Amino acid sequence: MTDPSSRAAAVPGDGRLGVSVVIPAYNEAEAVEEVVQRVIRILVKEGRPFEVLVVDDASSDGTGDLARRGGARVLTHTRNKGYGGSLKDGVIAARHPLVMFYDADGQFDAGQIPEMLSCVPKYDMVTGWRDSRSHVPKDRVLGKKALGLVADYLAQQHIPDLNCGFRVLRRDLLMQYLHLLPDGFSASTTTTLLFLKQGHTV
């Protein structure tokens, strides 16, 4: 039986790079199966080599089994490593030259995946930008704004959404900085700043 999470269906000679979609997941049983299925449907239509890799961060609600049922390849942690720790393990395990980060809770629109992929290889990293419809807890709004101002200063340019978890990157570049990424939620922020400060196109 063919593994639906790992396809090599690119049109012969079209030159499009394969992508590994890494989805960190901790107790996401409510949404993860549907998220995986939606991503796979979009990537099958996209017609390039791909895999969907869910990193089950020691969930207790059957997240890994549901992700596998949805068609993902699943990497299981025996202890909770955090969001960044899951991303790093996913990148190491990835089989393709492009790595896409995607959240397991269903907040992103999988229909935008082809548009993001179309920006590579022109850019080394393409990141999403959440608008006002995205849910941000009120107690985090001021902190996020302050962090954004600091990041804009460090990067010497405006960054619309510093820590959006929806992005695609060149795996070979990311591997150079993987040891610098923290295990927590700030891994996305750190990745953005690293790529900008090192002169990569974002």
Please provide a written account of the structure.
The protein is α/β, with parallel strands linked by helices and 202 residues long. It has seven helices and seven strands; from the N terminus they run ββαβαβαβαβαβαα. The protein has helices spanning 32-46, 63-70, 83-93, 113-118, 138-155, 171-177, 187-197; strands spanning 6-7, 19-25, 50-56, 73-76, 98-101, 125-127, 167-170. Strands 1, 2, 3, 4, 5, 6 and 7 form a seven-stranded mixed sheet that branches. α2 links the parallel β3 (50-56) and β4 (73-76). The longest helix is centred in the C-terminal third of the chain and has 18 residues, at 138-155. The chain is globular, with a radius of gyration of 16 Å. Mean pLDDT is 83; it is low at 8-13 and 133-137.
What's a concise summary of this model?
The protein has helices spanning 32-46, 63-70, 83-93, 113-118, 138-155, 171-177, 187-197; strands at residues 6-7, 19-25, 50-56, 73-76, 98-101, 125-127, 167-170. It is of the alpha/beta class and 202 residues long. Helix 1 (32-46) packs parallel to helix 2.
